[in-house]
Amino acid sequence: ISCAALNNIEITLTQNAFNTLKTALTTDTVLALLNFDLPFDLATDACDYGIGATLSQKDENGQDRPIAHY
Fold first, then answer.
1. 65 in Cβ contact with 57 (< 8 Å)
2. H or E element: which one contains 29?
3. Contact predicate 57/67, CB 8 Å
4. Closest to 70 measured CA to CA, from 51, 47, 48, 49
5. Which helix (H) or strand (E) holds 69?
6. Do the Cβ atoms of 29 and 18 come closer than 8 Å?
7. Are residues 54 and 68 in contact, defined by beta-carbon separation less than 8 angstroms?
8. pLDDT of 48 higher than 70
9. Which helix (H) or strand (E) covers residue 15, if one does?
10. Quick check: 67 and 30 in contact, CB under 8 A?
11. Who is most buried in 1, 38, 63, 67, counting CB within 10 A?
């Protein structure tokens, strides 16, 4: 197999992994509906090349359930 073919396989596998993770993080089985009667938790993180945030609330079992990711 040539180097170009290996690079294409690696890119395809990386893209597939990214798409799977993106789908998992944005489906309704992961994201909860917000409830304005409950308090919100905002978690943030940043570094020299990126930022991120998650808005969440605790469910009836006390587990953090994400509402949105940025």
1. yes
2. none
3. yes
4. 51
5. strand 64-69
6. no
7. yes
8. yes
9. helix 3-26
10. no
11. 67
